[in-house]
Sequence to fold (174 residues):
Amino acid sequence: MLSQATGGPLTLALIGAGKAGRSLAAAAIKAGHRVVLEDVLPSRLREALDEIPTEGMPGSLETVTTVEDAVREADLAIDFVPDELESKLEIVCMVDRMAPPKTILCIHTGTLSVSDLANCTYRADRCIGASFSTNDVAIMRGMKTSDQTTALVENFFRSCSATVSVSEEAAVAL
Fold:
């Protein structure tokens, strides 16, 4: 997996250390990526450190308690907050404000419009949606998502041994 700038592993910010966030963190570490796992609950971060094997793995794991610390050097940020409009809007705006311009924002959603959320940022071309089930990842391109963003996210999930499908978000006619 190539990072945007160096050709090396990605620095991945995972926002939320629940079961899904921990599962992706483990796969990313196994694939050789640097993972910065964020959660506001220290107990979830302790669980992550206990559950995720890092010894002998090509990647690394760091835990933090603020979104700002998580996204500071991120190539790719993926949120695992509840799939509710207010929660997503808050985290999308926070990541957009705190992450460097290079950071791609992958919005974990199965119900919300990636394009609508992306339009609330200064990086709509670097916003993409994804939904997960076991080893399958469905990537949803927003209306402004760039080909480069899609390729990087697709390659990241493939590096984690996921089966990936990519689709375009359908425009809504009013």
Remarks:
- The two ends are 40 Å apart (CA to CA).
- The mean pLDDT is 92.
- The chain is about 35% helix and 25% strand.
- The beta strands are 11-15, 34-38, 60-64, 76-79, 104-108, 127-133, 136-141, 163-168.
